[in-house]
Amino acid sequence: MLLSYTLKNLFRHFWRTLATILGVAVGIAAVLGTVTVGDNINANLQSVFTAASGKAELIVAPGASGRAVIEAKPVLDRLEQEPLVQRTLLTLEYYAVLKNEAKDYQRPIVPGVQGGFLISGQQTDRPEDLPVKLSSGTLPVKGSFGIAVSQSFAAQERLNIGDQLSFVAPTGSFELTITGLLKTDGGISSLNAGQVGVTSLEDLQERTYLQGRVSYVGLILGPRSNAEDVRLKLEDLLPETFSVLYPAGRGQVSNGLVQTVQSGLEVLAATLMALAGFLAYNTFAASVVERHREFALLRTLGFTRGQVLKISYLEAAVISVLGVLVGVLLGVAIAAAITAFNAYLLEFPFTTLELPWTKVLIASGVGTVTTFAAASGPARAASSVAPLIAARGSVDAGKGFPFLIGALVLAVGLLLSVLHYPRAWALTGASVSMALTFVGIALVSPALLGPARRLFEPLLTGLFGVPARLGLGAVLRSRARNGVAIGAVALGIGLTVGVGGMVSGINQSIEDWVETTIIGDMFVAAATPFPADFRDQLKTKYPELDEISAVGVRIARYEPPGERPRNASIVLTDPERYDPAIGAGKLQFIEGSLETTIQEFYRGRAVYASGTIADRYNVKAGDTVKLRTTEGWTDFRVLGVVVDYTSAGETFIASTRDLKLFGGGSPELYILSLKNGNPRAFGEQLKKDFEDLYLDIQYNEEYKKAILDTTSRFFGSTNSLLVLAVIIAALGVANTLGMNLSERMHEMAVLRALGLRRGELMRSVFTEGIVVVVMGTLLGVLGGLALSQVITASANTLTGYRVNPVYPVQLFGVAIIASPVVGILAAFLPARRAARVSPAEALRTSSEV
């Protein structure tokens, strides 16, 4: 009986039920869409690399010793001792630049990152094992010096079978003839945005002078082999200069900017987890507050308090199930949209959508639990009131908590938002502090409506006349429900200010780092290796040069105390550049200084550690760190701790005097400054004088702009959450005003009968909406300031960066204008509906409530 009544009641109040379901669903969807961003980026990158590895279940790759290739024979000899390895597949990956594009080619922004055309050397005599599919032509055979290129690349360059491709590479120039076209539906052709081709392994080794060397060895295991058991066994069998990985492991791309955003999103997701519960509470509480008269009628008809509560809980169960279903579907759509956007920015194919079941269950659980919590509080308050008193409408079932308790909850939330939490507690601290802050805002809001009425009355009466007084009176009569609407607006504004403050803070931090680090007139890279005497040639030919600084980037193995070795970036730079007496370069020091350490930096075997390294592994100035070099594990003294955004922040800045310890070779970049003259004119002359190097020259302002433009693109998916925040605010306002009008149908009918025109009725409704959105905006800015502090502080704890929230004037402009404008627009539909209802119909409707 109760279930039947519950379902009929839900369908009878269809729009109220729909609004409540959407309130629950939006919270779940926001959480689900946010927490799966990193999972989906990794899943798609891993799927690309898995497909590109063909039948290989494991790969043996370099052990991050600074070298990109390994000797194949020692690996193959040791693999003969493992009977579960059925076959091996050798691969040599090599990046080169097409000669006809070399003059216009631009190296990646970060030195040391590979760019250009990817040539994959494969054992083409075993096509059945290769991760390629031919659409036409043939695979190149040994000695043909041919290449099969992807269809997309051939179409883009208008190439045909038989055409020749000329490459410029670090080992010199060479040509390959196109023998076939590869399908672009997966495998190797999905790498490097389609700029890829397959050639014979032996031919590529010969052309690049890398005979006997490969990038990795793919392992095809025997039937019924356990890949994890084989991997662990081979880790023990092979020297630590090799790593045994799953093919997807190559997709674990490490990028400081991406990790910064992802860490911020993780904190935001934890916060949204709490706020989703708050939103579910708000929407359901508003629904139950509206129905205290209905509950009173049920009590009059003989229903017990327990039965009234059961009805409320049954409604909560139905709404939570529907909210979870809609929320998961909406969350999938949000996750897909964000992943597709990131795939476009990061240039990887969007092939899979990852939805970890644990995160789906957590997000769904939050919505379900908070819906039941929302049903319990207001329903208990309404059911405990005497039937006759409630039937007269003299009780407000939303008055559950006094102002002082709400103020206390808000104060505790704000206090927790400024505390610094250990790394393990960062996400928990963020979610708890934000949950308390926004719950506190919702609890204190009803008590603030009285002072708000007195404050707004002169202005609104002047604008709308007598209808404004009616609207202001309605604000107080629906005090509890309007408090719920204020909480929804505050949530939308809070997210706008909080997320915007985080993004602006990260942008400002990176901009400060760029302004400090990117000092020099021009930044010179080359398609081919710089000659060993390039610096001397520059000094001899160009006396007008004031500074010539080299920069190289290597990957080395770092051994944190008590932990397993891991990869770290080694940025090698000339000490002269940072010498306070003669250099133009600067470092942002967190701990230490150049004045006291520069002489040790000149001597070598000393490094400056990034703030991320310092925070994650408790590294301080004066400590010693172990890095794997060509001499084995080598001690380096830490001279100081600095800000750095290279390679997920896990970076050491070392001297170019130590370049030979990290694999040798030439620097990737030279920074040049002129004593006087035009940098662009000098750059053009430099290109002519070193025509065979195919120089890529970027000038100071352009280089800075390119870096900042690259970083700002990573925040597109984060900023899209602001749109969701505005939708949440609009939904809360429209839902509340719609319920207010439904309850006041009788009142409006009487007013219309007494001569109140439709336009005047609409103005009274708008008055109520304006008070709600303005109060929500003011309180939302307060919550947003706290939210931005929590997000950035927790992201700093997770990443080790030093980012502070920044609040540009434009951000507050968007926050103050966007949600109120959308909220008032959301109020238009209920206001228009109320104005169009005839007095007779309104009286009939009110009699049915």
From TrEMBL:
Topology in the lipid bilayer: Multi-pass membrane protein
Keywords noted in UniProt: Cell membrane, Membrane, Transmembrane, Transmembrane helix
Keyword field contains Iron: no
Domain ABC3 transporter permease C-terminal: 268-384, 720-839
Cell compartment(s), UniProt: Cell membrane
An example Gene Ontology CC term for this record: plasma membrane
Alphabetical list of Pfam families matching this protein: FtsX, MacB_PCD
Residue ranges constituting the MacB-like periplasmic core domain according to the UniProt record: 17-236, 485-653
Transmembrane segments: 267-289, 313-346, 401-419, 426-449, 455-476, 483-503, 721-741, 761-787, 807-829
Tagged with keyword Transmembrane: yes
Protein name per Swiss-Prot or TrEMBL: ABC transporter substrate-binding protein
